[in-house]
């Protein structure tokens, strides 16, 4: 595990996303209902940034919607929840320490989920 600081928590809009670049990987840091997620910032259907899409609940899952054709991606797993995308995008573990947001793009298979409420515990 190699968490690296990517941004300040206040830089990420609530129910929105911030695009960051980490180790040559484009990552969307997303806040939704108090939780913080990190997801690959390239749609699996075509190469457009997911960070420009809406963050919303879809079918009970926290998602980010691709603005081009409307596929939503589960922020917890990277799986698309609707067509036309059929392939998942990568997701990364997130750690929030005070105002600082850390992401580990080297993690293998670990799904991220860090609550902003975890800040007090770190
Ligand atoms: S480019 Fe994202 S759904 Fe088509």
Automatic annotation (TrEMBL):
Q: Locate the Rieske domain: which residues? A: 4-103
Q: Which ranges does the record mark as transmembrane?
A: none
Keywords recorded for this protein, A-Z: 2Fe-2S, Iron, Iron-sulfur, Metal-binding
| Keyword Iron attached | yes
| Entry-linked Gene3D superfamilies | Rieske [2Fe-2S] iron-sulphur domain
- Recorded coiled-coil stretches: none
What name goes with this protein?
Non-heme iron oxygenase ferredoxin subunit
**Which organism is this protein's natural source?**
Geodermatophilus maliterrae
